[in-house]
């Protein structure tokens, strides 16, 4: 019998992280898990220890406790995007305020909500099991905030969309949102109770720590080569190799570094800054709140209460990096923009500077679908977070685990109907188009 031809997928690059994440810096020092050394075997190898990879591992453990699962994380858990995001695990789609409230749009939005709530259910189960307090996992909801007439109109329209979906929400006028935020900057707000706010680095560390034998997590163990075929694969790291029948590729944009989804993933970074701790008495309002902008591409703001004082997080700016690597120049430019946004919103905190600044990579697809499915016999992709990856990448991981185990679920049913990611324009048009598009949308967001 002819053996299938051996295939080799070698990583052309490995992830790097720009800047220092305040979320990691706020936590006590942590002992990294060991790196993979020597030769071994596993029933499943998961490449990537972010939301997608760790959620897939968790789901497999929930379904079949006997499977030996190995998770390989290139760097340290929590240092990449999953541990350096703004911590919103959002349940509602960004664009329910569509012109068309017809049956198809409503059905699509309901499915998007179902996907998100499946992800939130996994996160909530871990939080309950690990007995996390509200500093790690807080089901407090979020605000969407406006700063302009256009933003106000957008919130009203979005609220109409939520009403059509039967989703709970509350519109707030300028006074109502000022009572929450302690600042007079916002012209209106919309409260949505279903979002969970996490300390993202603590959440992702805790998710990794919740995995029990026979699930093993290795850090500082980048997969550099996948070779084999016909459902028999060897994954090589700098110090080890592991043979397996099944792989879940959960390394988001770096799937393309192995040649998968070539020219189908748009490598967009976003950026955040966090202030020093300040005396909570300096700012009225609630000590913990989280707000996304009314208009897409605007500025996200969070106030985080801590034992040593409170901090403000500002997340703003998007930039495109075809090589999935961003330098300190982009970090500095994003930081300057954060300072402007911060001083416009918190004039009374002018003497409280930013302490940490960082950025992180996301992988978007042209048609906003995940890069998902069995891409080679025995290799399952859970990539293409499309921005809101705390939710979507978690769902990608759950769905990939279900698909790999042949388990029919609502997620596999919905995911089976997604199109494949569409090819992006050729270079240099892709870079020119992506940069122009991001610049235009940021300009449209204006002060928001
Ligand atoms: C500043 C910022 C704020 C954000 N805010 C939010 C938010 O509030 N809510 C939200 O939903 N989303 C937010 N995001 C986006 C979110 O963080 C991502 O969508 C999410 O992390 C994607 O999850 P993932 O598991 O697919 O990928 P990642 O989190 O990127 O995880 C992939 C992992 O794979 C590893 N890896 C890569 N290559 C290899 C390899 N060869 N071998 C082994 N491991 C490898 C990486 O090191 C990484 O740990 C934000 C992002 C940033 C940067």
Annotated CATH architecture of the largest domain: 3-Layer(bba) Sandwich
Tell me the CATH topology of the largest domain.
FAD/NAD(P)-binding domain
How many helices does DSSP assign? 10
Helicity range: 25-40%
Q: N-to-C SSE series? A: EHEHEEHEEHEHEEHEEEEEEEEHEEEHHH
Give the low-pLDDT segments. none
β content, as a range?
25-35%
Mean pLDDT: 95
Q: What structural class is derived from the secondary structure elements?
A: alpha+beta
How would you describe this structure to a colleague?
The chain is an alpha+beta fold and 448 residues long. It has two domains: 7-84 and 201-263 and 366-430, FAD/NAD(P)-binding domain (3-Layer(bba) Sandwich); 137-195 and 267-365 and 434-445, D-Amino Acid Oxidase, subunit A, domain 2 (D-Amino Acid Oxidase, Chain A, domain 2). It contains ten helices and 20 strands. The protein has helices at 22-25, 51-63, 103-130, 149-165, 174-181, 200-210, 328-345, 389-404, 410-416, 429-445, and strands spanning 7-10, 38-47, 69-72, 88-89, 137-138, 142-146, 170-173, 188-192, 196-198, 215-218, 225-229, 232-237, 240-249, 266-275, 289-293, 300-306, 309-320, 354-364, 371-376, 379-383. The radius of gyration is 21 Å and the shape is globular. It binds flavin-adenine dinucleotide. Flavin-adenine dinucleotide binds at residues 11, 14-15, 47-53, 72-75, 80-82, 84-88, 90, 222-223, 250-252, 254, 270-272, 315, 359-360, 362, 385, 388-391, 393.
List the helices and strands and how they pair.
Elements: E1 7-10, H1 22-25, E2 38-47, H2 51-63, E3 69-72, E4 88-89, H3 103-130, E5 137-138, E6 142-146, H4 149-165, E7 170-173, H5 174-181, E8 188-192, E9 196-198, H6 200-210, E10 215-218, E11 225-229, E12 232-237, E13 240-249, E14 266-275, E15 289-293, E16 300-306, E17 309-320, H7 328-345, E18 354-364, E19 371-376, E20 379-383, H8 389-404, H9 410-416, H10 429-445
Helix pairs in contact: 2-6, 2-8, 3-6, 3-8
The site of flavin-adenine dinucleotide (FAD) has 42 residues, from helix 2, strand 14, strand 18 and helix 8.
């Amino acid at each position: 019998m002819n053996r299938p031809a051996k295939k080799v997928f070698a990583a052309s690059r490995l992830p790097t992280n720009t800047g220092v994440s305040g979320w990691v810096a706020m936590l006590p020092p942590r002992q990294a898990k060991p790196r993979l050394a020597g030769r071994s075997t596993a029933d499943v190898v998961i490449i990537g220890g972010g939301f997608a990879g760790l959620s897939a591992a968790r789901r497999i453990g929930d379904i079949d406790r006997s499977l030996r699962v190995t998770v390989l994380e290139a760097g340290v858990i929590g240092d990449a995007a999953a541990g350096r995001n703004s911590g919103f695990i959002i349940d509602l789609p960004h664009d329910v305020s569509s012109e068309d409230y017809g049956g198809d749009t409503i059905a699509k939005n309901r499915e998007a909500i179902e996907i998100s709530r499946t992800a939130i259910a996994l996160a909530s189960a871990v939080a309950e099991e690990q007995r996390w307090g509200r500093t790690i996992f807080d089901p407090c909801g979020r605000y969407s905030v406006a700063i302009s007439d256009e933003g106000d109109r957008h919130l009203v329209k979005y609220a109409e969309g939520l009403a059509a979906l039967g989703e709970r929400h509350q519109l707030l006028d300028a006074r109502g949102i000022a009572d929450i935020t302690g600042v007079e900057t916002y012209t209106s707000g919309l409260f949505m109770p279903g979002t969970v706010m996490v300390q993202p680095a603590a959440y992702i560390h805790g998710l990794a720590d919740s995995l029990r034998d026979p699930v093993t997590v290795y850090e500082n163990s980048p997969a550099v080569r996948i070779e084999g075929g016909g459902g028999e694969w060897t994954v090589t790291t700098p110090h080890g190799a592991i043979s397996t029948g099944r792989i879940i590729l959960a390394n988001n944009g770096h799937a393309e570094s192995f040649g998968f989804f070539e020219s189908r993933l748009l490598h967009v970074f976003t950026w955040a800054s966090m202030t020093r701790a300040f005396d909570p008495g300096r700012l009225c309002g609630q000590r913990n709140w989280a707000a996304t902008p009314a208009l897409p591409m605007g500025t996200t703001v969070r106030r985080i209460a801590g034992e040593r004082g409170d901090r403000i997080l500002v997340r703003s700016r998007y930039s495109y990096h075809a090589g999935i690597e961003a330098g300190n120049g982009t970090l500095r430019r994003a930081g300057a923009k954060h300072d402007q946004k911060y001083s416009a919103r918190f004039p009374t905190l002018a003497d409280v500077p930013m302490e940490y600044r960082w950025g992180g990579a996301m992988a978007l697809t042209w048609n906003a679908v995940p890069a998902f499915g069995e891409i080679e016999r025995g290799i399952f992709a859970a990539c293409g977070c499309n921005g809101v990856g705390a939710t979507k990448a978690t769902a990608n991981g759950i769905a990939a685990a279900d698909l790999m185990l042949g388990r029919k679920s609502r997620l596999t049913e919905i995911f089976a109907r997604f199109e494949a990611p569409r090819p992006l324009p050729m270079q240099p048009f892709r870079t020119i188009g992506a940069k122009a598009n991001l610049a235009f949308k940021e300009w449209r967001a204006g002060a928001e």
